[in-house]
Amino acid sequence: MNSLTDQFTRLIKNASTEDLEILTDYLKNFEKKQQGEFTTYLSAGLNMTRVTDEESSHVSIPNTPFIHNNVNIPHGGILAVLLDTAMGTLANSQCPTGFGAVTTNLTIHYLTVADEEKITAKAQIIRSGRHTMVLEGNIFQDDGKHIATATGSFFIVPKKTEPVIAVKQ
Questions:
Q1: Considering only CA atoms, which of 110, 12, 103, 106 is closest in space to residue 69?
Q2: Least confident window among 58-62, 99-103, 160-164
Q3: Nearest to 52 by CA among 63, 62, 39
Q4: Which of 26, 92, 34 is nearest to 61 (CA)?
Q5: How far is it, in rounded angstroms, from Cα 123 to Cα 93?
Q6: What value does the mean pLDDT take over residues 109-115?
Q7: Using CA atoms, how far apart are residues 95 and 112, in angstroms rounded to an integer?
Q8: Residue by residue, what is the 3-state secondary structure of 109-122?
Q9: Which of 57, 60, 119, 155 could be stapled to 123 by a disulfide with Cβ–Cβ 3.0 to 4.6 Å?
Q10: What secondary structure does DSSP assign to 108-158, as a single string?
Q11: What residues contact residue 119 under an 8 Å CB cut-off, 6+ apart?
């Protein structure tokens, strides 16, 4: 624990204002994960909010430097996570008890740069079968600008009772 405290002290000492803002947000959301407000570390780290009903799922994240790439725009991989999460959340909400949906294919077309404070992906089901589902996801800004569009295929599989974790060599 002492080495973690030392590392944290060094981080704080050398941090910029932006570093401190990002670290503060991250730690606040990590605490929310510990308290059960987030189900995954990824959702906590990205500060995701989700709203799902029978027909759609909306997943939002704040547009902060935490998600930006080296040209200071939202990283395409983060937008992929956002789209996949919106589609996967909706797909999972439609699965029978004891089953879950996992992504088998994800195709994304990036159309322009997101430049508003919040980025939101919306998902809808295109087709739902017994073993697979196909969904559509889009990111639109509040001003109507279309940021990205995607389709995703999902297998419906039995849920695992234990997490699948790689064994250290």
A1: 110
A2: 160-164
A3: 39
A4: 26
A5: 12
A6: 97
A7: 33
A8: EECCCCCCCEEEEE
A9: 57
A10: EEE-S---SSEEEEEEEEEEE-SSEEEEEEEEE-TT--EEEEEEEEEEEEE
A11: 60, 61, 62, 63, 74, 79, 82, 139, 141, 147
